[in-house]
# Entry
Amino acid sequence: MAFRRWVLALVVLAGACGDEPRRRPPVGGDGGVDAGAALRDASFPDVPPVDGGVCMDAVDVVFVLDVSSSMNFVLEELEDDVQQVVDAATALAPDPHFGFLGFVDNHAFAANGSLEGGRVHTSAATLQAAFREFLSTYTSPNRNPGDGPSGPTTQNPICEENALDAIHAAATEFPWRESATRVIIVATDDTFLIAPDNYGDRDGDGDWTSTDFPREGNYPARRGYAETVTAVQEARARVFAFTRLTAPDVFSRCGTGRRLGWSQITEGWSAPYQGAEPIPSATDGQNFDLAAVQAGRLSLAATINEVVVESYCQPPLF
# Structure
């Protein structure tokens, strides 16, 4: 994957510096880049151009972020550094569009952007304001975004978070532009449940009305795994995720119960989900180590910039 990113970055830069159309790199029998062919012919003359001419894609990026109480560091880092992401996207193509969708047991789009009823952000300033608002309104009091700012607090009775519904919404409800390179950035520290399970049913007994801590509530999972992957593929988007590659130590684990074992938090991200390919690889994306971000060893902004460059004018390989 590292070699593939290097080759694709060279293709993008070569296309940006001359009049030759950007072309798809040759692929091998396993669907990956044919490294030998790439080195033999950096211009890939035997492969048709992406659109029959010079690529003029716009850039659309949607952040799909777990905003539960353990994820404050992601919102804080993005608030500090998202200007770098906006600047890098603008260097690729003018007028990049961004979206932000926060999730816990349900989800909501940030609606303070400048276009499309607030869902589309065209500046770092509105994204920064959205990250601050979600941090103070949802992350700190442990409130579900879909409940709005007056919803109940401490409303997260199990550790798993509803990433599937949020990713599906990003794929199907964000106003993607027809000519845009489309990237979905996901950050979460756990796996997810699938319909018809309920995130508000802490003990899985079919009842979600208990009010003692951790308070239950009716937060059904509405999407399945395959339909979520299909929605992303049909949107011609890539998912790049920041998740845990191993379970946290006992002192860092969430304080409520969970439906699935701790060893399963990688499923769907860096490991198969019930035998199915992980979401990032199924959408021609990649998964990164969230713990490295938290420890300061991996920069969110720099990594996001890299994957947007990788994706630019390169339709997903699925």
Observations:
- The first helix runs from residue 2 to 17.
- The chain has nine helices and six strands.
